[in-house]
Every structure is written in structure tokens, then in C-alpha cells.
Write a structure and sequence with these properties.
Length: about 160
């Protein structure tokens, strides 16, 4: 994972620093498999928008259920951080997700799709809005579901 040093010369400073530091710490926890610490950055009233869900996910329990589903479907899944930007209370990141579908993939309607054994690799972007304490208030994810469906040969 690329790291962000908000104290490095020419690095991010000012109001976006807390958001960038939170992002860095959260992604380090995810990479280490420390899901409790990863989840601790979400505020109790967090709202998460994701293209696969018709309605926003609300609260850390729903966010954790989504994360658990991803890690079950892609137990070897990893995020390569490409770019990270911060401005004010918002941090945005561009990733590439890579994994092999070796676990059941549960769709938003509850339907379980058996593992395909196929690899996926797709770009995604995430924008988080933080409160003054570095807690995620709002998360917006952007990625192309058609690319994933095609790679899994589900269409």
C-alpha cells in the first residue's frame, strides 16, 4: 500500500490532514487483518453509498456485514492504493481490488452465488467525509459492477 506522510515536506497539511491520517490508519488496519480497528473509524450514524445496493447502508453493523461478505467471497482479496487526496473533511482514494472468488457471493437480495474460482481485478474509488475526530460520517464508493460480473462469467 502506498503511504501518506502528512508531515513530509510538500505533503498534505491543513484541514485535510486528519482525514488523510484516518485513511492511512484505517487501510493499515485492513491490510493487517485487524477488522475491529478498521471498523472503529466509522461513526455510529455513518451512511455508505455503494453501487450494488439500492439503498444506502446505515451504521457500522451494515458496513461490517458488507466487509465480511467481501472477505468471504474473496478471501485473498487485496486493495492496491493508487492515489489519495484530501481536502477539508474529505479524503478520496483510487484503488485496484484483486481477488479470487473462492467463497459464496451474497447479492443484495440475499441470493448466494456459489464460488466461481475466477479472479477479479477492477478499479474503484472511495470518498469519505470525516468529522473533527476523524470518524467516517459518509462513504461513497464508485466502481463498475458490469466489469465484476463479466470477470466472474455470471452474465
Amino acid at each position: 500500500m502506498d503511504t501518506i506522510d502528512p508531515h513530509a515536506p510538500g505533503g498534505p497539511t491543513g484541514t485535510g490532514t486528519v482525514a488523510l491520517q484516518t485513511f492511512q490508519a484505517q487501510m493499515a488496519a485492513l491490510a493487517a487483518g485487524d477488522l475491529d480497528t478498521y471498523m472503529s473509524y466509522y461513526r455510529e450514524d455513518v451512511v455508505l453509498e455503494d453501487p450494488q445496493y439500492p439503498d444506502p447502508l446505515r451504521g457500522p453493523a451494515m458496513v461490517r456485514e458488507d466487509l465480511d461478505g467481501l472477505l468471504t467471497a474473496y478471501p485473498d482479496g487485496s486493495f492496491e492504493t493508487r492515489r489519495v487526496i484530501g481536502q477539508g473533511d474529505v479524503v478520496g482514494a483510487e484503488f485496484v481490488f484483486t481477488g479470487t472468488n473462492n467463497g459464496a457471493l451474497v447479492l443484495p437480495d440475499g441470493t448466494a452465488v456459489p464460488p466461481t474460482g475466477r479472479p477479479v481485478r477492477f478499479p474503484l474509488s472511495v470518498f469519505n467525509r470525516m468529522d473533527a475526530d476523524g470518524q467516517i460520517v459518509e462513504e461513497n464508493r464508485y466502481y463498475d459492477l458490469t466489469t465484476i460480473i463479466r470477470q466472474l462469467e455470471l452474465s
